[in-house]
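Hi V.,

You were right to ask for the full record rather than a summary. Here it is.
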Amino acid sequence: MSLNIALTGINAANADLGVVSDNIANANTTGFKKARAEFGDLVDSMSAQSGGLGVRLQRITQTFQQGSVETTGNTFDMAVVGDGFFQVNDGQEVFFTRAGSFRADTQGYIVNNLLQNVQGYTVQESPPTASSEVALGLTLDGSGLINAPANFDANDPLTYNHATAITVYDSAGFTHTLRSYFLKTTVNAGPPTTTDWQIYHKVDNNPSTIDGGVINFDNTTGAITATPTFLSITGVDLGTGADTMTLNLNYDDLTQGSSFSIVSFTANGSLRSREITSIVDDLQIDSSTMQPKMTGTVDLGINLNSSEEAPVPTATVEYTASLGGGSTPINTGATPFDPTDPTTYHHVNSQQIYDSLGVNHTLQTYFTLTTTANTWEVHYTLNNTIPIENNGGTILFASGRPDLTNVTTPITFATAELGSGATALTITPDFSKVLEVAGTTSETMSVIATSPSANPSTIDATDIRNYDYSTALSIYDSLGIDHTLNLYFRKTADNLWSVYRQFTDVESIATRIGSVAFDSRGLPTQAADETGYIDPDEPLMLRMPSVSFGNGAGRQNIELNFGDTTQFDSESITNSLSQDGYTMGQLSKVDADELGNVIASYSNGETQIMGQVVLARFANTQGLKRQGDNNWIATRESGPAIIGKPGNGSLGKIVVGALESSNVELTKELVDMISAQRSFQANAQVINTTGTLYQAILSIR
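Predicted structure:
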């Protein structure tokens, strides 16, 4: 009995020595995890005393403790710090490893020393998708004025009731601004009473106008009753060599109400895109040339000096307002105008104006609906103290449009009235954008005071007196050719700056493209283009449509983002300028980061992600089956691999340019070896002693 028990002890000690020797042999193996022999006692279950029968090896387990991280400096060497395994594939089977000594093979695949492909989230490139539908969730103002289609002019807001703009995409991957104009044309007596609206469309700054047809609303319900369905935009209008774009106009959410509003306004389609997917596959580096990308957006981080003086003296005051024609008329003969008595007028607005010395004054303008049909008297005061009685004249409205024949122009404030020592101030009021609308509500949209030369449509940029500040940056066309975009800023009134642009290689003068306005805190409030259009979704975005360089590149639209522009009392300065275009680029190097992203760098200074290394974890790591060459495979006991990005959840992070060393501690292994050796010797001694006893028994005669 004792001989057999000792034999089990020798076998156990031998197994223990085998594990220890394996650990010691792999003390320098990258990503190796030391093993441990685990034993259990043997018992004679048939014996009443349950006598011991020795020992047996239960299992050899591995210790997945973190190994030390050693820096190598190699681009694709990676070490996992924390939980997780790299996933590799030999084309037949998936393996898991902690050994991150990777490299790129001749085909660009990232492989390990066994030429097994490293697995990761791959990149999918999608071609451009042309827009095919525009959904117009709008409410049109049924109480607006009638507009004749024959008078339509996209540059004159008085010739249409509403305008919208949205970005659409053509088949060649270019963006376009589709502007839609809505004209209330006819109210049909019925029954039921209905209203016709004419729609026109323009693409970018193309001079041609596309007839969008007529839509019809039921005036009682506001529901649409007749609609045009499709809009076709030819390749000529697109100007990019793309196919004709056919848009389905979705009017399901288009209604007529008492005021204009945009509930939702969307278009499908997309540019060429490149994104990481959730598909796990072999990671490969694409060494092909990076295609150029034309500039679409410019972000402007500029401060414009609020102390810059607007041109003086003020010469023109432009009003944009709507006057409530349903208000109760006032008999001005019996009740003369009194600026201190609100019952003698219906509406008032105010604006800062400047005299010849640059001193500012507050000009108040009052509007009074008289008992003469559709006739409004105009009065002024200066600094709330000096009335100019009956000197404003009258505005007669016909079909809501102003007849300015009887408006007094210009008006003059004498030196004594100014009180600043400046010469007399003569101002020309412009009421051409004042309308009479139904109802009793009057509203001022804007009052802009300027000097004669404050806001020219073009300027000579070679004369620095023509602007207050300028900045420049390079932008790229669809061929990847760079062009210098010069931007000039000219203060035209308090908190209002005109914006001019000049592409020096194709334009000899700087052209006004719009304006940017600020509030009393110096923060931007809106950017308006030359037609006065402000994007309701992106009010700080100023669009430059139909930019063409005449070099074979496609026509492109560029958006100027004034979100980071300010107007503070400090020197005008450019803090940051950025744009999203670039020229073509050749692959120059490939790196990785701690998130496992494989990042390609190009000669044009751009980078793009080629994929992302994934990590795998298991519910029971001890259930993994060791395969050799630092690889494990999943088993039923380990459970399936749970794949994720490095750093997500309980997954560890990646250290790039480093490898995880073996977690074998030689000192401990030597101690374990001595312990196993002594166990072996002791069990051998038991066998020797037992043999001596047997020999003694056999020697008895």
